[in-house]
């Protein structure tokens, strides 16, 4: 990685390839490009300094360049050690007008296959604005909440005047965070407090990050307002579902190329992500089994025609296991020890704690072998082996390239609108967690219909009056569930 400049990517010479794929993606992201056109003259993000922590893919490059087109300055890191597409990162660092010899793009700190130390260093770099008074951003765009978490922990420990001892860390990753905060506290004891002082808010992309925000709100520790982008209908009911329907099997195919038809696949969790995953596996002819703790989702799965069972019922016989819960300890080491030879185990939930990788490594006699990056076999003493994808991290981004552009256009149109909303109407949002108004949600959907050749029916005024909604929308009450 190039360290002479204010960015760090794997290989700048990949920029031209990245730029070509960005151009293809722009055509497939009509919502995001329409927002670019709509606000080009107005420049609503002029003055915004946005720190982004979100998978550094081709689609994210289009998001970043949209934010820049609306006037923002941006610094970026990925939100997962395996999810960066190095050509996209290079293209963003070089910028549309720059060259690898003379880069002029956005400071991006991301490459595929970071260590945990590198990952948190990248997050710190994205949050640290060298040429500003506070040294920090005034907006955050987060996916999973890691940038928000680092900042909140930094501020909390600076208030305490001390960081918990590294020995108290509950995991490897926790240890890395504590070490980083020990370093910053020693170097600059008010770094995070100062850096956070002008932040107007955060817009959060995913279920797991949103969950963290509501927890902080309840504990009263949230430092600034947040927009929950995930729960826009045009985000979670599209990206989480149709995105995973596309990218789950893409990941399994690229990793293993195993025929999915006829196999028994267990999908743990039948929320938005689980629904998309189950459908994609069924589409390939797999016999899909669902595990759920929520009776409503379990009943939905049954009515959709899936067998609902417990993991223990299929742990010895299923061929493919996918976790989608956002919860921890879904597949334990003791479960993996019982699986059949060459069973495939993967996670598509945000964090890597759904599958007990640490426990797997501790099984006596178990041997880990790399087939290729992000594909490993684990062989037990009796010779049986299982195949684990992306070391238990989200496999659709680790083994494949994540969701395709069209669905991300919906998610990122919401992100962009949320950034504009929080940045330009800060006073309307006291500290708390908000979802975007339904009219904006409908707008995002509207922006994607033409590209699919869909003709929307126009509501007539008498009909609007009859069902009690405005002709221009919003068309549903807030409690409607889609
Ligand atoms: P969700 O809340 O709609 O679904 C999760 C489901 O898991 C719920 O129905 C819940 O009842 C179930 N569950 C919880 N504990 C369980 C257990 N022990 N056994 C079986 N089921 C259990 O959440 P959503 O939106 O589906 O997201 C799931 C995860 O995927 C989150 O971590 C989210 O951040 C992540 N995500 C990942 C994406 C990707 O591209 N890899 C895209 C979107 C979300």
Give a description of the structure.
- With 482 residues, this protein is of the alpha/beta class.
- 43% of the residues lie in helices and 13% in strands.
- The strands form 2 sheets. An 8-stranded mixed beta sheet has the order 9-8-7-10-11-14-13-12, with helices on one face. The chain has a 7-stranded parallel beta sheet with strand order 3-2-1-4-5-6-15, sandwiched between helices.
- It is globular, with a radius of gyration of 23 Å.
- The protein binds 1,4-dihydronicotinamide adenine dinucleotide.
- 1,4-dihydronicotinamide adenine dinucleotide binds at residues 206-208, 236, 239-240, 243-244, 268-274, 291-294, 297, 324-327, 330, 348-350, 394, 396, 403.
- 1,4-dihydronicotinamide adenine dinucleotide binds next to helix 9, helix 10 and helix 11.
Write the layout of secondary structure elements.
Layout: H1 15-27, H2 30-39, E1 49-53, H3 58-69, E2 73-77, H4 86-94, E3 108-109, H5 116-127, E4 139-142, H6 146-160, H7 172-187, H8 191-196, E5 201-204, H9 207-219, E6 226-228, H10 233-256, E7 264-268, H11 272-283, E8 287-291, H12 295-303, E9 307-308, H13 311-314, E10 320-323, H14 333-336, E11 343-347, H15 357-361, E12 367-372, E13 375-379, E14 385-389, H16 395-398, H17 405-424, E15 433-434, H18 438-449, H19 461-467
Parallel strand pairs: 1-2, 1-4, 2-3, 4-5, 5-6, 6-15, 7-8, 7-10, 8-9, 10-11, 11-14
Antiparallel strand pairs: 12-13, 13-14
The site of 1,4-dihydronicotinamide adenine dinucleotide has 31 residues, from helix 9, helix 10 and helix 11.
């Amino acid at each position: 990685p190039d360290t002479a400049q204010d960015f760090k990517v794997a290989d700048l010479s990949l920029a031209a390839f990245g730029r070509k794929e960005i151009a293809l993606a722009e055509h497939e992201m009509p919502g995001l490009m329409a927002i670019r056109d709509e606000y080009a003259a107005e420049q609503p993000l002029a003055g915004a300094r946005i720190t982004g922590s979100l998978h550094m893919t081709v689609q994210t490059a289009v998001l970043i360049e949209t934010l820049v087109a609306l006037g923002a300055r941006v610094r970026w890191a990925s939100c997962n050690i395996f999810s960066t597409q190095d050509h996209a990162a290079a293209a963003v660092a070089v910028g549309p007008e720059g060259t690898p010899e003379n880069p002029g793009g956005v400071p991006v700190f991301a490459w595929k296959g970071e260590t945990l130390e590198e990952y948190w260093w990248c997050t710190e770099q994205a949050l640290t604005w060298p040429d500003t008074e506070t040294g920090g951003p005034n907006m955050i765009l987060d996916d999973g909440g890691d940038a928000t978490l680092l900042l909140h922990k930094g501020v909390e420990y600076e208030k305490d005047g001390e960081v918990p001892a590294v020995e108290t860390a509950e995991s490897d990753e926790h240890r890395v965070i504590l070490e980083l905060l020990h370093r910053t506290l020693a170097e600059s004891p008010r770094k995070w407090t100062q850096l956070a002082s002008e932040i107007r808010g955060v817009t959060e992309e995913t279920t797991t990050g949103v969950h963290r925000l509501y927890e902080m709100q309840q504990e009263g520790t949230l430092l600034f307002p947040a927009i929950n982008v995930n729960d826009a209908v045009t985000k979670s009911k599209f990206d989480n579902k149709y995105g995973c329907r596309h990218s789950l099997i893409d990941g399994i195919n690229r990793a293993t190329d195993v025929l999915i038809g006829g196999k028994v696949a267990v999908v743990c969790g039948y929320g938005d992500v689980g629904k998309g995953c189950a459908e994609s596996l069924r589409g390939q002819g797999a016999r899909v089994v669902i595990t759920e703790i929520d009776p409503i989702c379990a009943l939905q799965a049954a009515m959709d025609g899936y067998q609902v069972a417990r993991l223990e019922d299929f742990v010895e016989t299923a061929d493919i296991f996918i976790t989608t819960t956002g919860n921890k300890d879904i597949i334990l080491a003791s479960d993996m020890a019982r699986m059949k030879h060459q069973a495939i185990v993967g996670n598509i939930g945000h964090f890597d704690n759904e599958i007990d990788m640490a426990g797997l490594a501790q099984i006596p006699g178990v041997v880990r072998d790399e087939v290729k990056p992000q594909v490993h076999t684990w062989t037990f003493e009796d010779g049986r082996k299982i195949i684990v994808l992306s070391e238990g991290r989200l496999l659709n981004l680790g083994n494949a390239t994540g969701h395709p552009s069209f669905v991300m256009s919906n998610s990122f149109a919401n992100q962009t609108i949320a950034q504009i909303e929080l940045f330009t109407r800060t006073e309307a949002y006291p500290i708390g967690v908000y979802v975007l108004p339904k009219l904006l949600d409908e707008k995002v959907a509207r922006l994607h219909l033409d590209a699919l050749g869909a003709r929307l029916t126009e509501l007539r005024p008498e009909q609007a009056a009859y069902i009690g909604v405005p002709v221009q929308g919003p068309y549903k009450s807030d409690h409607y569930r889609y």
